[in-house]
Design brief:
The structure is a homodimer of 241-residue chains.
Chain A: H1 5-18, H2 30-36, H3 41-53, E1 57-60, E2 64-67, E3 83-84, E4 99-109, H4 113-118, E5 127-136, E6 139-149, H5 158-161, H6 165-173, E7 177-188, H7 191-197, E8 204-214, E9 219-228, E10 234-239
Helix pairs in contact in A: 1-3, 2-3
Chain A binds a DNA duplex (19 and 19 nucleotides) through residues 4-6, 29-31, 39-43, 45-46, 48, 59-65.
DNA sequence: CAGTGGTCTAGACCACACC
DNA sequence: GTGTGGTCTAGACCACTGT
């Protein structure tokens, strides 16, 4: 992993930045780094581009590369990760709380037009409909409804889906879920939400819905996640160029 | 713009993909493209990497590059943009609706500890507090509270902040807001929200709050945006690697 | 083993910022 | 003009996939 040239340099540079090695917030030129570390300009550029994408530095053509002032403040809200508070995968974790799953229902259904479209199904294909309640330390925080084409996963059982489907996939079929396309929004909670998530009538749910992909691009699952609003928290660093 | 080699190639390739030039969803090899178009391998790689980041193709080392099946479905939910439905800047637009701003209040205040931290202020600096109501076709959809250090923008007036602050910045001071770090969440609406946004008591607000940066990395504004929940819609394409 | 994408190098020229 | 990051090239070797 870290034996790659640009990753090695990236690591070094991050350490330097965090230790305050550049009090004026201006980095040396790319050519300087290239000569100092005896690595190619391309490797320097690649590493700096990653830092820029993460918001740690700002590159200005004609001027130089500058450290984001907020990158030095440890207590900042700024944490440089495009992420929700739930790793977006099955591997939920949060402050050492223990994740749990309660299976609500497990059926095989005929897909709607939308599912056929979003999961790239043929006519006459069936999908699993899996409703689960996810918890932290026994406290429900999310109602998850997942739709998975049978052909992609013909041997699912209630036992399997009561645990992590993605882990099962990886271990038994060597398939990896590597990308997701999600839409984030919010809605007033309905009676079911209120009952299952312990919400008051005026408290909303967060919605995250969309498609998970295998690493060969196959749409694997359409998922509809209704979250207790206190668990909807998505951080995003965006370039407006 | 489009006279760059990799951008030209990118454009060509997108057109080919959209016209169904690769019905088996497998692209030629990078070396093939390099020779066919007489451009360097690096340029091909750069363009394909962009397509991969946008979710249009999937690159698999050892196997090849494949078109995302959803990329061919025109009616898909999939639109390849990490974006909210409100360009994140002052230049709101939506289905040709006419944006409007109503200034609610315009003050100078002593910043809180959090503001000092997030805007990288020194002690004894003051900030503007600007409360505005944003509308589409006269219909309010967002309450925006912005905090801007006086030193960055010493000549703000009620007239200026009744329009686009970011546009004013660019035109009068040649400063550009180019990045943002935002946290997205949701909350039950309070009385003020309900009154200003026309919400029922059980209807929530979406929250987008965080910092906007100038292109030299200066934190320019801390903004707190409370949206009518129907306008909170954020699309995100994520690699889980 | 052959094929494919990933990394790396050395060097050239371009576009933009600042003096 | 000088210095900076951005693009581009040609070519080498590595890591992984599938036969």
């Amino acid at each position: 992993m870290a034996d790659l040239v640009y990753q090695q340099f990236l690591k070094t540079l991050k350490t330097q930045i965090n230790s305050g090695a550049y009090p004026d917030l201006k980095l040396p030129t790319e050519r300087f780094f290239s000569e100092q570390y005896k690595i190619s300009l391309s490797s320097v550029k690649k590493a700096l581009q990653i830092l820029a994408d993460q918001g740690i530095v700002f590159k200005k053509r004609g001027s130089g590369t500058f450290i984001n002032p907020l990158a030095q403040k440890s207590n900042s809200i700024f944490n440089y990760n495009n992420s929700s508070n739930l790793g977006v995968t099955d591997s939920f974790s949060m402050d050492g709380k223990k994740p749990g799953i309660k299976l609500l229902s497990f059926e095989v259904i005929t897909p709607t037009k939308e599912l056929i479209r979003d999961l790239f199904l043929n006519e006459n294909e069936f999908v699993y409909e899996i409703k689960r309640l996810r918890m932290f330390d026994g406290q429900p925080f999310m109602i998850e409804t997942g739709y998975i084409p049978i052909k992609l996963c013909p041997e699912l059982t209630p036992e399997i889906v009561s645990k992590s489907i993605f882990n099962y996939l990886q271990e038994s079929q060597n398939k990896v879920v590597s990308k997701s396309y999600l839409t984030i929004s919010a809605l007033p909670s309905n009676k079911t939400d209120q009952k299952l998530l312990g919400l008051a009538t005026n408290e909303p749910v967060g919605l995250m819905s969309g498609v998970f992909f295998l690493d060969d691009g196959t749409p694997f699952e359409y998922s509809d996640m209704r979250l207790h609003y206190q668990y909807l928290k998505y951080n995003t660093f965006v370039s407006l160029d």
